[in-house]
């Protein structure tokens, strides 16, 4: 009934997903405390743009690394009765 959402798919890429999650958490553990330390030690008008830049770089790096780890997406099951 809900196979179109991906729930009926086999667990084929579980190790890659776990590694990608670990990479995202490590990057977040670097970016968020650095943003907090910038706000604490620098004036707000310098720390806020610098912190947002660090967060944006962290998001970009995590997207790039996760894309390299995961590779291609899992294909949904073929619908015999759908489009031809």
Summarize the model shown.
It contains two helices and no strands. The protein is mainly alpha-helical.
Descriptive report:
With 84 residues, the chain is an all-alpha fold. It is built from two helices and no strands. The chain has helices at residues 14-41, 44-70. Helix 1 packs antiparallel against helix 2. The radius of gyration is 19 Å and the shape is elongated. The two termini are 21 Å apart.
Ordered list of secondary-structure elements with their pairings:
Blueprint: H1 14-41, H2 44-70
Entry keywords:
single chain, 2 helices, mainly alpha, 84 residues, elongated
Q: Which overall shape is indicated by the principal axes computed on the Cα atoms?
A: elongated
Structural class: mainly alpha
Proportion of residues in β-strands: under 5%
Task: Give the CA-CA distance, first to last residue.
Answer: 21 Å
Q: Give the H and E element order.
A: HH
Give the total of beta strands: 0
Please give the radius of gyration in angstroms.
Answer: 19 Å
Spans of at least 5 consecutive residues whose pLDDT stays below 50 are: none
Largest sheet properties: none
Count the DSSP helices.
2
Quaternary status = single chain
Determine the fraction of residues in helical runs and give it as a percent range: 55-70%
Instruction: Quote the average pLDDT.
Output: 77
